[in-house]
Write a structure and sequence with these properties.
The complex is a heterodimer of chains A (211) and B (636).
Chain A: H1 17-54, H2 57-74, H3 88-102, H4 104-109, H5 117-138, E1 139-143, E2 152-155, E3 176-179, E4 185-190, E5 194-195
Antiparallel strand pairs in A: 1-4, 2-3
Helix pairs in contact in A: 3-5
Chain B: H1 6-11, E1 31-37, E2 41-48, E3 60-61, E4 64-69, E5 72-76, E6 79-80, E7 83-84, E8 107-108, H2 110-118, E9 123-124, H3 127-131, H4 156-174, E10 184-189, H5 195-207, E11 214-217, H6 218-229, H7 234-237, E12 243-249, E13 254-264, E14 267-275, H8 283-300, H9 307-326, E15 332-337, E16 349-354, H10 355-366, H11 397-407, E17 431-435, H12 442-458, E18 465-466, H13 475-486, E19 494-495, E20 501-507, E21 520-526, E22 534-546, E23 551-558, E24 569-570, E25 579-586, E26 598-607, E27 613-619, E28 625-628
Parallel strand pairs in B: 1-10, 10-11, 12-17, 14-19, 17-18
Antiparallel strand pairs in B: 1-2, 2-3, 2-6, 4-5, 7-8, 7-9, 12-13, 13-14, 15-16, 20-21, 20-23, 21-24, 22-26, 23-25, 26-27, 27-28
Helix pairs in contact in B: 4-5, 6-13, 8-9, 8-10
The chains are: A mainly alpha (211), B alpha+beta (636).
Family (chain B): Belongs to the heat shock protein 70 family.
Keywords (chain B): ATP-binding, Nucleotide-binding
InterPro entries (chain B): ATPase_NBD, Heat_shock_70_CS, Hsp_70_fam
Chain lengths: 211, 636
């Protein structure tokens, strides 16, 4: 007797046309399913985008999410620390200004051991006066703390550690109370000269030849 | 006047002076720009005209980008009025670029002064003083005067043009949407500038495309700035009958003016009644005087100074002087002149400047306590003078002031609000306004007031008061910008007109006497106080001019003959009354005429809206007009 039960363990033993068609139909159907699903997804995403144009915030959220994912991916390897490289031009320029106004390089490069304090004092006036002029002309300086040096000051929680440095017996938690040893200096404005293309900043003082 | 609705006139700070919108006011200008074209520094100030109806005026001073040394460009409020004629091998390639050009035609500003301090043969300075120096052709290349032949020379006119060009380019690079030639521009000149110098200044402005610029006298600009800074309060500080003496001591010149305060229809009116001579004496002379004093002291100790050391000494004397003036507790300031080589410590020269020296040289030397009857000493000039500027021979500024006040005693005779007592020997100012960097030193300002008040007290007149609150360095530029605002019908306007009356010399018809130069008469062609935009003709005085041949007239001005009407002939005058200016010249072109033909003409004088004097020859026959040129200089 022939019973028509479904034997799941049955594998096609022959590679005939029927089976090929069957497999093809299955593949086609599943492909259709995938395409359908994808198109639904895409159209949904588009809808969301359209909404996003009207309200800007959602976009920001999406971007944030992406960033987070990326972070998670990179989390295991520590980010390489990029230190800012100081450009030599501005430093050279400052040296040039100090030399021009105050003979700064001349003074520093001179061997002062052979001179008397009186002689050095005379030269120091040139340097002091010139440096004062150069610094005042190109920078605006202000004290970080306006309190009198030597007075007691209290630093609240979350004070900026870059502008105020703690020293000595650093224990406990903020607010910290201590003595202002140095009022600090900060540059509030920089007015360095602009440079033309032909300017060689490395020449802090050109050699001088009188004809 | 249709531009100004009646109700606006009524409430516009209730000024009586109704200012007509001048032709030179640019339609739709966004800014009022004031340019102080100084002897040693130029300053540009500007204010937005957009909110003019709010009665708000807030002038700003433009930071002027300029080269300070080769390769460095910095912004400064002042542009030093110097030009440097660099040698082609002197500066590296691309080291003279400016934000608006890779290679400027001329090096001007701080870099010129810096390079020139070491190479003076290539430095052009004081171009402005040359502009009003009689006997010099201002368009001839004469500067630098002591340059060797191979150095390219420029004319004082070219130098002035170059400074204006730099200011214009700087403005353009900062205000690309508001070209300077479309703004209201006011350029200041010394009150003592003669017609030719004014004409040259306007021409220089025209050469850089600023044909719309108008002129304003510096002391007036200083007073405008004071009025503007007082925000309407000036009426409390000035009263009817006041005579305001404006004393302007700048780097190279001293300028004096008198402005009277009168009343008309219940409102205060200001009238500039007199201006002084152009005195080439200023702060630079003071620094030099100190340097020579210190030099003498060093030479006594057997130390000889080289020229570059004197230069450096002048610089440090200037700084030391300022310190002594600001810190009254200091008795002396050490002066050091560093060696030029890289060894700083060994070769440095040390000396000091004491308070006693500053007092003796500056206070007693420049502002001596003199009687009001004293006059400046003038040595007769030696016949052969090197081509240089006619610097004042007497450094006593107080003596120049005494001479000015005595000379101008009658300046206010026609003003009924000003009453000078009968026994006065000089004009009594009641208020003083200072201008110029020199008077920042309280010691000098106080001494000047002390001397003036001592003269007043001798004649039982009340002491003059100082009008406070002036910005001594920037006032002229700020006041010039404010003047642009005044010309729009806001605020009070200082009336003035020409500061002198003008005459041409005419040979009187008399039989020739061997050995005698024919007598000459002075024919008044423009009266004192001629207002801008007016003209005067002399139809009765005819001259026959030959076509194609230049005809020259001697030209005179007077700062004191106020009553002379046009057409009056003077047979006799004292040296003090009339100053001879450069000759004027007229050449009738040949257009449509026969060479050699004689054309009868009469003269016509006009004061333009710009503020310059214009002389014309008018043909009787066909009303043809020819301009008479001023700038016929050069001592040919």
């Amino acid at each position: 007797m022939n019973t028509y039960g479904i034997d799941l363990s049955l594998k096609p033993t022959t590679f005939d046309l029927w089976h090929v068609c069957l497999a093809g139909t299955v593949a086609l159907l599943s492909l259709l399913l995938v395409v359908l699903l994808l198109s639904i997804l895409i159209s949904r995403a588009r809808c969301k985008k359209k909404a996003a144009i009207q309200a800007a915030e959602p976009v920001v959220k999406i971007v944030e999410k992406i960033v987070e994912v990326e972070k998670l991916v990179h989390a295991p390897t520590p980010e390489p620390v990029v230190l800012k490289e100081a450009t030599p031009d501005a430093a050279l320029q400052l040296l040039g200004l100090l030399q021009k106004e105050a003979r700064f390089i001349d003074f520093i490069k001179e061997d002062i051991t052979v001179f008397s304090d009186a002689d050095i004092g005379v030269a120091a006036r040139v340097v002091h006066e010139g440096c004062n002029k150069a610094i005042n002309e190109h920078f605006t300086l202000a004290a970080v703390r306006s309190e009198q040096e030597g007075s007691k000051i209290t630093l609240p929680d979350g004070f900026d550690a870059a502008t105020v440095r703690l020293t000595g017996n650093i224990v406990g938690t903020a607010p910290f109370t201590g003595t202002l040893v140095h009022k600090g200096w900060q540059v509030t404005d920089v007015r360095l000269p602009k440079l033309t293309s032909g300017y060689n900043a490395a020449i802090v003082a050109p050699a001088e030849v009188e004809l | 006047m249709s531009d100004w609705p009646g109700h606006e006139q009524a409430n516009a700070t209730a000024e009586s002076v109704v200012v007509q919108q001048a032709q030179n006011a640019v339609f739709g200008a966004q800014y009022s720009v004031g340019i102080d074209l100084g002897t040693t520094h130029c300053v540009l100030s500007y204010a937005d005209l957009g909110n003019i109806d709010d009665e708000e005026f807030s002038p700003q001073v433009m930071a002027i980008p300029q080269l300070t040394s080769p390769g460095l460009v910095e912004e400064k409020q002042q542009l030093p009025s110097f030009m440097y004629q660099a040698h082609e091998a002197e500066l590296a390639q691309d080291s003279t670029s400016l934000p608006w050009t890779s290679k400027p035609d001329y090096l001007v500003g701080e870099i010129a002064r810096n390079l020139g301090s070491k190479t003076s043969i290539r430095l052009v300075s004081s171009a402005k003083s040359w502009l009003c120096h009689t006997g010099v052709d201002c368009k001839a290349p004469i500067l630098p005067t002591d340059a060797p032949d191979e150095v390219e020379r420029v004319s004082p006119f070219q130098a002035t043009t170059a400074y204006l060009q730099h200011l214009r380019d700087a403005w353009q690079s900062q205000h690309p949407n508001a070209p300077l030639d479309q703004q209201d521009v006011v350029i200041t000149v010394p009150a003592s500038f003669d017609p030719a110098a004014r004409e040259l200044t306007v021409e220089a402005a025209r050469a850089v495309g600023l044909g719309q610029a108008i002129l304003l006298e510096e002391p007036q600009a200083a007073l405008y700035s004071w009025i503007e800074k007082s925000h309407g309060d000036w009426r409390k500080h000035a009263e009817v009958g006041d005579i305001i003496l404006v004393i302007d001591i700048g780097g190279g010149t001293t300028d004096l003016s008198l402005i009277a305060v009168t009343e008309k229809d219940g409102n205060l009116e200001l009238t500039r009644v007199a201006v002084g001579d152009h005195i080439l004496l200023g702060g630079d002379n003071m620094d030099l005087a100190l340097a020579y004093t210190v030099k003498a002291k060093l030479e006594k100790d057997g130390k000889r100074l080289e020229p570059w050391q004197l230069q450096a000494l002048t610089h440090s004397c200037r700084d030391a002087k300022e310190k002594l003036f600001t810190h009254s507790e200091l008795d002396n300031i050490p002066l050091v002149v560093a060696s030029r080589g890289s060894s700083l410590i060994g070769g440095t020269l040390r000396t000091e400047l004491t308070r006693e020296e500053v007092n003796r040289v500056l206070v007693e030397g420049f502002l001596p306590k003199v009687a009001v009857s004293d006059r400046p000493v003038s040595r007769p000039r030696t016949g052969l003078r090197t081509a240089g500027l006619p610097y004042a021979q007497d450094a006593g500024i107080t003596r120049h002031l005494a001479a000015f006040l005595a000379k101008q005693q009658g300046a206010t005779d026609e003003l009924k609000d000003i009453n000078l007592s009968d026994h006065a020997s000089f004009l009594h100012p009641t208020a003083v306004l200072f201008n110029g960097g020199v008077l920042k030193a309280d010691t000098l300002a106080e001494r000047l007031m002390e001397v003036l008040n001592s003269w007043l007290s001798v004649e039982q007149a009340p002491a003059a008061r100082l009008l406070a609150g002036a910005d001594l360095d920037l006032a002229v530029a700020r006041g010039a910008a404010y003047y642009g605002y005044v010309r729009k019908g806001k605020g009070v306007r200082i009336k003035g007109g020409t500061a002198a009356s003008y005459y041409v010399g005419i040979e009187s018809a008399m039989p020739a006497v061997p050995g005698l130069v024919p007598e000459i008469q002075a024919l008044c062609i423009a009266p004192f106080g001629m207002e801008e935009g007016t003209q005067q003709e002399l139809p009765d005085d005819e001259f026959g001019l030959v076509i194609g041949e230049p005809v020259r007239f001697r030209f005179f001005s007077s700062h004191i003959r106020r009553e002379d009407k046009v057409g009056i002939r003077l047979d006799y005058w004292t040296d003090e009354e009339l100053d001879e200016l450069d000759e004027i010249e007229i050449t009738l072109p040949e257009e449509g005429r026969r060479p050699g033909e004689v054309v009868p003409v009469h003269l016509c004088a006009a004061v333009t809206e710009v503020g310059t004097l214009e002389l014309q020859a008018v043909s009787q026959k066909d009303q043809g007009r020819w301009k008479i040129e001023f700038d016929v200089r050069a001592g040919e």
